[in-house]
Amino acid sequence: MHSWLSSHLNQPTNSNSPTAHPVIPPSSSPAMPGKVIIIGGGCFGLSTALELVKGEYKGHGNLITVLDRSSTPPAADAASSDYNKIVRQDYCDETWAKLASEAIREWSTPEWAPYFAQSGVLVLSQTSHAVGAAYVRNAYNVNSHPSMALDGRLAVNLPTPSAIKGVFGNDALSTAEFTNEVAYINPQSGWALARRAMDMVCEQVRKAGVRVMGGEVDSLMYDSKGGKKDVTGVRLVDGRSFSADKVVVAAGSWSAKFLPEIGKELLASGQAVAHIQLTPEEAAEYAHVPVVFRMDTGFYIFPPTPDGIVKFAIHGPGWINPTSHNGHPIPSIPKEGHYRLPQEAIQALKINLANTYPELAKKEWFETRLCWCVVLPSLFTPRNPLKKQVLRVPLE
Ligand SMILES: Cc1cc2nc3c(=O)[nH]c(=O)nc-3n(C[C@H](O)[C@H](O)[C@H](O)COP(=O)(O)OP(=O)(O)OC[C@H]3O[C@@H](n4cnc5c(N)ncnc54)[C@H](O)[C@@H]3O)c2cc1C
User: Of 90, 213, 227, 317, which sits with the fewest C-beta atoms within 10 Å of its C-beta?
Assistant: First the structure.
Protein backbone atom coordinates (compact mmCIF):
# COMPACT_ATOMS: atom_id res chain seq x y z
CA MET A 1 0.00 0.00 0.00
CA HIS A 2 1.28 3.50 -0.80
CA SER A 3 2.53 5.00 2.41
CA TRP A 4 0.60 8.26 1.94
CA LEU A 5 -2.65 6.40 1.56
CA SER A 6 -2.15 4.08 4.48
CA SER A 7 -0.93 6.83 6.75
CA HIS A 8 -3.85 9.10 5.89
CA LEU A 9 -6.44 6.38 6.20
CA ASN A 10 -4.88 5.19 9.42
CA GLN A 11 -5.19 8.64 10.91
CA PRO A 12 -8.82 9.60 10.70
CA THR A 13 -9.49 13.29 10.93
CA ASN A 14 -12.36 15.06 12.53
CA SER A 15 -14.35 16.86 9.87
CA ASN A 16 -14.69 19.84 12.20
CA SER A 17 -10.95 20.31 12.36
CA PRO A 18 -9.30 22.70 9.89
CA THR A 19 -7.11 19.89 8.57
CA ALA A 20 -9.98 17.59 7.75
CA HIS A 21 -9.92 17.82 3.92
CA PRO A 22 -8.59 16.37 1.78
CA VAL A 23 -7.68 13.18 3.60
CA ILE A 24 -6.34 11.57 0.45
CA PRO A 25 -4.17 13.84 -1.75
CA PRO A 26 -4.97 14.14 -5.45
CA SER A 27 -3.35 11.72 -7.92
CA SER A 28 0.29 12.64 -8.58
CA SER A 29 0.25 11.51 -12.20
CA PRO A 30 -2.47 11.82 -14.83
CA ALA A 31 -1.68 8.24 -15.88
CA MET A 32 -2.59 6.94 -12.45
CA PRO A 33 -6.18 5.88 -11.99
CA GLY A 34 -8.04 8.03 -9.48
CA LYS A 35 -8.77 7.15 -5.89
CA VAL A 36 -11.98 5.23 -5.31
CA ILE A 37 -14.14 4.83 -2.25
CA ILE A 38 -16.73 2.08 -2.35
CA ILE A 39 -19.49 2.44 0.24
CA GLY A 40 -20.58 -1.06 1.22
CA GLY A 41 -18.72 -4.37 1.24
CA GLY A 42 -21.59 -6.60 0.13
CA CYS A 43 -21.73 -8.60 -3.06
CA PHE A 44 -21.82 -5.49 -5.25
CA GLY A 45 -19.19 -3.44 -3.39
CA LEU A 46 -16.61 -6.21 -3.06
CA SER A 47 -17.25 -7.48 -6.61
CA THR A 48 -16.71 -3.94 -7.91
CA ALA A 49 -13.38 -3.79 -6.05
CA LEU A 50 -12.40 -7.20 -7.43
CA GLU A 51 -13.30 -6.22 -10.98
CA LEU A 52 -11.31 -2.98 -10.66
CA VAL A 53 -8.15 -4.70 -9.39
CA LYS A 54 -8.38 -7.24 -12.19
CA GLY A 55 -8.72 -4.43 -14.77
CA GLU A 56 -7.89 -0.74 -14.71
CA TYR A 57 -6.57 -0.87 -11.13
CA LYS A 58 -4.34 -3.90 -11.60
CA GLY A 59 -1.33 -3.19 -9.40
CA HIS A 60 -3.10 -0.14 -7.92
CA GLY A 61 -5.45 -1.83 -5.46
CA ASN A 62 -4.12 0.54 -2.80
CA LEU A 63 -6.08 3.34 -4.47
CA ILE A 64 -9.34 1.66 -3.55
CA THR A 65 -11.03 1.78 -0.16
CA VAL A 66 -14.10 -0.23 0.76
CA LEU A 67 -15.96 1.26 3.73
CA ASP A 68 -18.56 -0.82 5.50
CA ARG A 69 -20.60 -0.63 8.71
CA SER A 70 -18.75 -3.83 9.61
CA SER A 71 -14.96 -4.20 9.60
CA THR A 72 -15.46 -7.75 8.31
CA PRO A 73 -17.93 -7.15 5.49
CA PRO A 74 -20.48 -7.99 4.41
CA ALA A 75 -22.20 -6.97 7.65
CA ALA A 76 -24.14 -9.75 9.37
CA ASP A 77 -27.44 -8.12 8.34
CA ALA A 78 -26.39 -7.54 4.71
CA ALA A 79 -28.29 -9.43 2.02
CA SER A 80 -24.99 -10.95 0.88
CA SER A 81 -24.26 -12.38 4.31
CA ASP A 82 -26.23 -15.58 4.16
CA TYR A 83 -25.85 -19.35 4.25
CA ASN A 84 -26.78 -19.64 0.60
CA LYS A 85 -28.32 -17.97 -2.41
CA ILE A 86 -29.88 -19.39 -5.56
CA VAL A 87 -27.75 -19.13 -8.70
CA ARG A 88 -30.31 -19.58 -11.44
CA GLN A 89 -30.69 -18.70 -15.06
CA ASP A 90 -34.41 -19.32 -14.76
CA TYR A 91 -35.78 -15.99 -15.83
CA CYS A 92 -38.19 -15.46 -18.69
CA ASP A 93 -36.22 -12.42 -19.75
CA GLU A 94 -33.56 -13.66 -22.20
CA THR A 95 -31.03 -10.98 -21.25
CA TRP A 96 -31.21 -11.88 -17.57
CA ALA A 97 -31.05 -15.59 -18.37
CA LYS A 98 -27.94 -15.09 -20.51
CA LEU A 99 -26.26 -12.97 -17.82
CA ALA A 100 -27.03 -15.69 -15.29
CA SER A 101 -25.67 -18.28 -17.68
CA GLU A 102 -22.37 -16.37 -17.79
CA ALA A 103 -22.39 -16.26 -13.99
CA ILE A 104 -22.91 -20.04 -13.82
CA ARG A 105 -19.96 -20.52 -16.17
CA GLU A 106 -17.86 -18.43 -13.77
CA TRP A 107 -19.17 -20.27 -10.69
CA SER A 108 -18.14 -23.53 -12.37
CA THR A 109 -14.47 -22.53 -12.68
CA PRO A 110 -12.00 -24.13 -10.22
CA GLU A 111 -11.76 -20.82 -8.35
CA TRP A 112 -15.45 -20.63 -7.43
CA ALA A 113 -16.68 -24.22 -7.82
CA PRO A 114 -15.95 -25.02 -4.13
CA TYR A 115 -18.71 -22.52 -3.24
CA PHE A 116 -21.21 -23.62 -5.88
CA ALA A 117 -23.56 -26.61 -5.88
CA GLN A 118 -25.13 -27.39 -9.24
CA SER A 119 -28.13 -29.07 -7.65
CA GLY A 120 -30.57 -27.98 -10.34
CA VAL A 121 -33.52 -25.68 -9.69
CA LEU A 122 -37.09 -26.99 -9.88
CA VAL A 123 -39.30 -24.14 -11.10
CA LEU A 124 -43.03 -24.64 -10.66
CA SER A 125 -46.45 -23.11 -10.16
CA GLN A 126 -50.00 -24.30 -9.71
CA THR A 127 -51.63 -24.25 -13.16
CA SER A 128 -54.52 -22.26 -11.66
CA HIS A 129 -52.17 -19.36 -10.84
CA ALA A 130 -52.22 -17.68 -14.25
CA VAL A 131 -49.24 -15.37 -13.79
CA GLY A 132 -47.03 -17.91 -12.00
CA ALA A 133 -47.83 -20.62 -14.56
CA ALA A 134 -47.11 -18.23 -17.43
CA TYR A 135 -43.76 -17.37 -15.86
CA VAL A 136 -42.83 -21.05 -15.60
CA ARG A 137 -43.78 -21.68 -19.24
CA ASN A 138 -41.92 -18.62 -20.51
CA ALA A 139 -38.81 -19.36 -18.41
CA TYR A 140 -38.88 -22.94 -19.72
CA ASN A 141 -39.06 -21.71 -23.32
CA VAL A 142 -36.04 -19.45 -22.75
CA ASN A 143 -34.03 -22.07 -20.89
CA SER A 144 -34.77 -25.01 -23.17
CA HIS A 145 -33.48 -23.13 -26.21
CA PRO A 146 -30.28 -24.78 -27.53
CA SER A 147 -28.38 -21.48 -27.22
CA MET A 148 -28.74 -21.74 -23.41
CA ALA A 149 -26.98 -25.10 -23.13
CA LEU A 150 -24.00 -25.28 -20.82
CA ASP A 151 -22.16 -28.60 -21.07
CA GLY A 152 -24.94 -29.76 -23.39
CA ARG A 153 -27.59 -29.58 -20.66
CA LEU A 154 -30.89 -27.73 -20.94
CA ALA A 155 -34.07 -27.21 -18.93
CA VAL A 156 -36.24 -30.35 -18.84
CA ASN A 157 -40.04 -30.19 -18.90
CA LEU A 158 -41.80 -32.14 -16.11
CA PRO A 159 -45.29 -32.80 -17.46
CA THR A 160 -46.60 -35.14 -14.72
CA PRO A 161 -46.59 -35.35 -10.91
CA SER A 162 -44.39 -38.45 -11.08
CA ALA A 163 -41.91 -36.64 -13.34
CA ILE A 164 -41.72 -33.86 -10.73
CA LYS A 165 -41.30 -36.32 -7.86
CA GLY A 166 -38.54 -37.98 -9.89
CA VAL A 167 -36.18 -35.02 -9.57
CA PHE A 168 -35.71 -35.33 -5.79
CA GLY A 169 -33.04 -38.01 -6.10
CA ASN A 170 -34.60 -40.17 -3.37
CA ASP A 171 -37.76 -42.22 -4.01
CA ALA A 172 -38.29 -42.69 -0.27
CA LEU A 173 -38.37 -38.95 0.43
CA SER A 174 -41.65 -37.53 1.69
CA THR A 175 -42.63 -34.74 -0.70
CA ALA A 176 -45.84 -33.09 -1.87
CA GLU A 177 -47.90 -34.89 -4.53
CA PHE A 178 -47.38 -32.06 -7.02
CA THR A 179 -50.75 -32.33 -8.72
CA ASN A 180 -51.94 -29.59 -11.07
CA GLU A 181 -48.49 -28.06 -11.38
CA VAL A 182 -46.65 -26.70 -14.38
CA ALA A 183 -42.97 -27.44 -13.80
CA TYR A 184 -39.52 -27.88 -15.22
CA ILE A 185 -36.06 -28.48 -13.84
CA ASN A 186 -32.95 -26.65 -14.92
CA PRO A 187 -29.96 -28.88 -14.13
CA GLN A 188 -27.53 -26.02 -14.80
CA SER A 189 -28.83 -23.84 -12.00
CA GLY A 190 -28.04 -24.36 -8.34
CA TRP A 191 -26.95 -22.44 -5.29
CA ALA A 192 -23.89 -20.82 -3.75
CA LEU A 193 -22.46 -20.72 -0.25
CA ALA A 194 -23.02 -16.97 -0.16
CA ARG A 195 -21.12 -15.82 2.94
CA ARG A 196 -18.18 -18.11 2.32
CA ALA A 197 -17.86 -16.90 -1.27
CA MET A 198 -17.99 -13.29 -0.07
CA ASP A 199 -15.23 -13.98 2.46
CA MET A 200 -13.11 -15.28 -0.42
CA VAL A 201 -13.79 -12.16 -2.51
CA CYS A 202 -12.88 -9.99 0.48
CA GLU A 203 -9.64 -11.91 0.97
CA GLN A 204 -8.77 -11.53 -2.71
CA VAL A 205 -9.31 -7.77 -2.80
CA ARG A 206 -7.36 -7.32 0.44
CA LYS A 207 -4.48 -9.29 -1.09
CA ALA A 208 -4.62 -6.98 -4.10
CA GLY A 209 -3.99 -4.04 -1.75
CA VAL A 210 -7.57 -2.78 -1.39
CA ARG A 211 -8.21 -1.24 1.99
CA VAL A 212 -11.33 -2.82 3.50
CA MET A 213 -12.27 -1.03 6.68
CA GLY A 214 -15.07 -0.49 9.15
CA GLY A 215 -16.73 2.90 9.03
CA GLU A 216 -20.36 3.94 8.72
CA VAL A 217 -20.85 6.57 6.06
CA ASP A 218 -23.27 9.33 6.99
CA SER A 219 -23.35 11.30 3.75
CA LEU A 220 -21.63 12.11 0.50
CA MET A 221 -19.48 15.25 0.24
CA TYR A 222 -20.13 17.51 -2.73
CA ASP A 223 -18.29 20.26 -4.54
CA SER A 224 -20.79 22.55 -6.24
CA LYS A 225 -18.31 24.91 -7.92
CA GLY A 226 -19.14 26.16 -11.44
CA GLY A 227 -22.74 25.06 -11.23
CA LYS A 228 -21.65 21.42 -11.39
CA LYS A 229 -22.29 19.17 -8.43
CA ASP A 230 -19.48 16.64 -8.01
CA VAL A 231 -19.13 14.02 -5.32
CA THR A 232 -15.74 14.56 -3.68
CA GLY A 233 -15.80 12.03 -0.86
CA VAL A 234 -17.70 10.73 2.11
CA ARG A 235 -18.39 11.83 5.65
CA LEU A 236 -18.65 9.18 8.36
CA VAL A 237 -21.00 9.20 11.34
CA ASP A 238 -18.00 9.36 13.69
CA GLY A 239 -16.90 12.66 12.14
CA ARG A 240 -14.10 11.37 9.89
CA SER A 241 -14.18 12.26 6.24
CA PHE A 242 -12.40 10.77 3.26
CA SER A 243 -11.90 12.34 -0.15
CA ALA A 244 -11.73 10.43 -3.42
CA ASP A 245 -11.91 10.94 -7.15
CA LYS A 246 -14.78 8.52 -7.45
CA VAL A 247 -17.31 7.27 -4.93
CA VAL A 248 -19.29 4.12 -5.61
CA VAL A 249 -22.48 3.71 -3.60
CA ALA A 250 -22.93 -0.04 -3.10
CA ALA A 251 -24.74 0.07 0.21
CA GLY A 252 -27.47 -2.33 -0.89
CA SER A 253 -30.82 -1.58 0.67
CA TRP A 254 -29.29 1.24 2.71
CA SER A 255 -28.36 3.16 -0.48
CA ALA A 256 -31.37 5.49 -0.36
CA LYS A 257 -29.72 7.16 2.64
CA PHE A 258 -27.05 8.67 0.40
CA LEU A 259 -29.20 9.17 -2.65
CA PRO A 260 -32.49 10.62 -1.36
CA GLU A 261 -33.19 11.96 -4.88
CA ILE A 262 -33.85 8.42 -6.05
CA GLY A 263 -35.01 7.02 -2.72
CA LYS A 264 -38.35 5.91 -4.15
CA GLU A 265 -36.48 3.80 -6.69
CA LEU A 266 -34.38 2.17 -3.98
CA LEU A 267 -37.12 0.75 -1.85
CA ALA A 268 -35.75 -1.61 0.80
CA SER A 269 -37.99 -4.61 1.28
CA GLY A 270 -37.60 -7.06 4.18
CA GLN A 271 -38.06 -10.64 3.00
CA ALA A 272 -38.92 -13.50 5.35
CA VAL A 273 -36.29 -16.22 5.81
CA ALA A 274 -36.14 -19.19 8.19
CA HIS A 275 -33.84 -22.17 8.81
CA ILE A 276 -34.01 -25.73 10.03
CA GLN A 277 -31.11 -27.79 11.36
CA LEU A 278 -31.11 -31.36 10.05
CA THR A 279 -29.47 -34.34 11.73
CA PRO A 280 -26.71 -35.99 9.65
CA GLU A 281 -29.17 -38.81 8.78
CA GLU A 282 -31.82 -36.34 7.61
CA ALA A 283 -29.22 -34.34 5.68
CA ALA A 284 -28.24 -37.51 3.80
CA GLU A 285 -31.90 -38.07 2.84
CA TYR A 286 -32.24 -34.59 1.37
CA ALA A 287 -28.70 -34.41 -0.04
CA HIS A 288 -29.69 -34.70 -3.70
CA VAL A 289 -32.80 -32.55 -3.84
CA PRO A 290 -32.82 -29.51 -6.14
CA VAL A 291 -33.62 -25.97 -5.06
CA VAL A 292 -37.42 -25.71 -5.25
CA PHE A 293 -38.71 -22.32 -6.41
CA ARG A 294 -42.46 -21.68 -6.63
CA MET A 295 -43.53 -18.91 -8.99
CA ASP A 296 -47.08 -18.78 -7.58
CA THR A 297 -46.33 -18.17 -3.90
CA GLY A 298 -42.68 -17.05 -4.16
CA PHE A 299 -41.64 -19.83 -1.75
CA TYR A 300 -38.22 -21.38 -2.23
CA ILE A 301 -36.22 -23.95 -0.31
CA PHE A 302 -32.63 -25.12 -0.58
CA PRO A 303 -30.97 -28.51 -0.20
CA PRO A 304 -29.05 -28.80 3.10
CA THR A 305 -25.72 -26.99 3.41
CA PRO A 306 -22.64 -29.08 4.30
CA ASP A 307 -23.60 -28.32 7.94
CA GLY A 308 -27.12 -29.69 7.49
CA ILE A 309 -28.87 -26.30 7.47
CA VAL A 310 -31.97 -25.93 5.29
CA LYS A 311 -32.93 -22.38 4.41
CA PHE A 312 -36.39 -21.52 3.13
CA ALA A 313 -37.95 -18.19 2.33
CA ILE A 314 -40.59 -16.29 0.44
CA HIS A 315 -39.61 -14.01 -2.40
CA GLY A 316 -42.40 -11.57 -2.87
CA PRO A 317 -44.46 -9.56 -0.42
CA GLY A 318 -42.01 -7.62 1.64
CA TRP A 319 -42.07 -5.34 4.66
CA ILE A 320 -40.87 -1.80 4.52
CA ASN A 321 -39.39 0.56 7.09
CA PRO A 322 -40.06 4.21 6.27
CA THR A 323 -37.75 6.62 8.04
CA SER A 324 -35.76 9.80 7.46
CA HIS A 325 -32.09 10.67 7.30
CA ASN A 326 -30.50 14.13 7.57
CA GLY A 327 -33.94 15.70 7.14
CA HIS A 328 -34.86 13.70 4.02
CA PRO A 329 -37.77 11.25 4.15
CA ILE A 330 -36.74 7.75 3.04
CA PRO A 331 -39.51 5.42 1.83
CA SER A 332 -37.69 2.41 3.30
CA ILE A 333 -34.30 1.26 4.56
CA PRO A 334 -33.54 -1.84 6.64
CA LYS A 335 -34.80 -1.99 10.17
CA GLU A 336 -31.61 -3.00 11.92
CA GLY A 337 -31.64 -5.76 14.51
CA HIS A 338 -35.11 -6.85 13.44
CA TYR A 339 -35.12 -10.64 13.28
CA ARG A 340 -38.67 -11.40 14.39
CA LEU A 341 -40.88 -12.36 11.48
CA PRO A 342 -44.38 -10.91 11.06
CA GLN A 343 -47.14 -13.47 11.79
CA GLU A 344 -48.32 -13.37 8.20
CA ALA A 345 -44.84 -14.40 7.00
CA ILE A 346 -44.62 -17.22 9.54
CA GLN A 347 -47.96 -18.61 8.36
CA ALA A 348 -47.01 -18.42 4.68
CA LEU A 349 -43.69 -20.15 5.34
CA LYS A 350 -45.37 -22.91 7.36
CA ILE A 351 -47.99 -23.62 4.70
CA ASN A 352 -45.50 -23.66 1.85
CA LEU A 353 -43.03 -25.82 3.74
CA ALA A 354 -45.73 -28.40 4.54
CA ASN A 355 -46.83 -28.32 0.90
CA THR A 356 -43.30 -29.17 -0.21
CA TYR A 357 -41.64 -31.38 2.44
CA PRO A 358 -44.29 -32.52 4.97
CA GLU A 359 -41.70 -34.12 7.24
CA LEU A 360 -39.57 -30.98 7.50
CA ALA A 361 -42.67 -29.01 8.47
CA LYS A 362 -42.66 -30.93 11.76
CA LYS A 363 -39.22 -29.66 12.73
CA GLU A 364 -38.40 -26.56 14.76
CA TRP A 365 -36.91 -23.49 13.15
CA PHE A 366 -33.63 -22.36 14.65
CA GLU A 367 -33.22 -18.90 13.15
CA THR A 368 -35.36 -16.40 11.31
CA ARG A 369 -34.59 -13.05 9.78
CA LEU A 370 -35.98 -10.33 7.62
CA CYS A 371 -33.36 -10.10 4.90
CA TRP A 372 -33.41 -6.74 3.16
CA CYS A 373 -32.96 -6.15 -0.51
CA VAL A 374 -33.81 -3.34 -2.87
CA VAL A 375 -36.84 -3.64 -5.06
CA LEU A 376 -36.89 -1.30 -8.02
CA PRO A 377 -40.54 -0.47 -8.64
CA SER A 378 -39.86 1.01 -12.07
CA LEU A 379 -37.98 -2.07 -13.25
CA PHE A 380 -40.78 -4.50 -12.57
CA THR A 381 -41.83 -5.98 -15.89
CA PRO A 382 -45.33 -7.15 -16.68
CA ARG A 383 -43.89 -10.67 -16.89
CA ASN A 384 -42.74 -10.67 -13.29
CA PRO A 385 -45.32 -12.80 -11.43
CA LEU A 386 -44.44 -11.18 -8.13
CA LYS A 387 -45.06 -7.66 -9.39
CA LYS A 388 -48.45 -7.21 -7.86
CA GLN A 389 -47.42 -8.83 -4.61
CA VAL A 390 -44.97 -6.23 -3.36
CA LEU A 391 -46.75 -4.82 -0.38
CA ARG A 392 -46.11 -1.38 1.02
CA VAL A 393 -46.68 -2.58 4.54
CA PRO A 394 -45.04 -0.52 7.26
CA LEU A 395 -43.14 -2.74 9.67
CA GLU A 396 -44.52 -2.77 13.18
C1 LIG B 1 -34.05 -12.79 1.48
C2 LIG B 1 -33.22 -12.56 0.26
C3 LIG B 1 -32.97 -13.62 -0.56
C4 LIG B 1 -32.23 -13.45 -1.72
N5 LIG B 1 -31.99 -14.53 -2.48
C6 LIG B 1 -31.22 -14.41 -3.56
C7 LIG B 1 -30.86 -15.56 -4.29
O8 LIG B 1 -31.25 -16.67 -3.94
N9 LIG B 1 -30.08 -15.39 -5.38
C10 LIG B 1 -29.61 -14.16 -5.75
O11 LIG B 1 -28.89 -14.07 -6.75
N12 LIG B 1 -29.92 -13.05 -5.05
C13 LIG B 1 -30.71 -13.15 -3.97
N14 LIG B 1 -31.01 -12.06 -3.24
C15 LIG B 1 -30.51 -10.76 -3.68
C16 LIG B 1 -29.04 -10.58 -3.27
O17 LIG B 1 -28.85 -11.09 -1.99
C18 LIG B 1 -28.71 -9.12 -3.32
O19 LIG B 1 -28.97 -8.61 -4.62
C20 LIG B 1 -27.25 -8.84 -3.01
O21 LIG B 1 -26.78 -9.59 -1.92
C22 LIG B 1 -27.13 -7.37 -2.73
O23 LIG B 1 -25.80 -7.08 -2.49
P24 LIG B 1 -25.37 -5.61 -2.12
O25 LIG B 1 -23.90 -5.57 -2.08
O26 LIG B 1 -26.07 -4.65 -3.02
O27 LIG B 1 -26.03 -5.34 -0.68
P28 LIG B 1 -25.72 -5.97 0.74
O29 LIG B 1 -25.26 -7.36 0.66
O30 LIG B 1 -26.89 -5.70 1.61
O31 LIG B 1 -24.48 -5.13 1.24
C32 LIG B 1 -24.58 -3.78 1.56
C33 LIG B 1 -23.43 -3.44 2.46
O34 LIG B 1 -23.43 -2.01 2.62
C35 LIG B 1 -23.07 -1.74 3.94
N36 LIG B 1 -23.57 -0.41 4.34
C37 LIG B 1 -24.86 -0.01 4.45
N38 LIG B 1 -24.92 1.24 4.88
C39 LIG B 1 -23.66 1.66 5.04
C40 LIG B 1 -23.07 2.86 5.51
N41 LIG B 1 -23.84 3.89 5.90
N42 LIG B 1 -21.73 2.96 5.57
C43 LIG B 1 -20.94 1.91 5.20
N44 LIG B 1 -21.45 0.74 4.78
C45 LIG B 1 -22.79 0.61 4.70
C46 LIG B 1 -23.76 -2.82 4.76
O47 LIG B 1 -23.16 -2.95 6.04
C48 LIG B 1 -23.57 -4.04 3.86
O49 LIG B 1 -22.44 -4.81 4.22
C50 LIG B 1 -31.74 -12.17 -2.07
C51 LIG B 1 -32.00 -11.08 -1.24
C52 LIG B 1 -32.72 -11.27 -0.08
C53 LIG B 1 -32.96 -10.11 0.83
Answer: 227
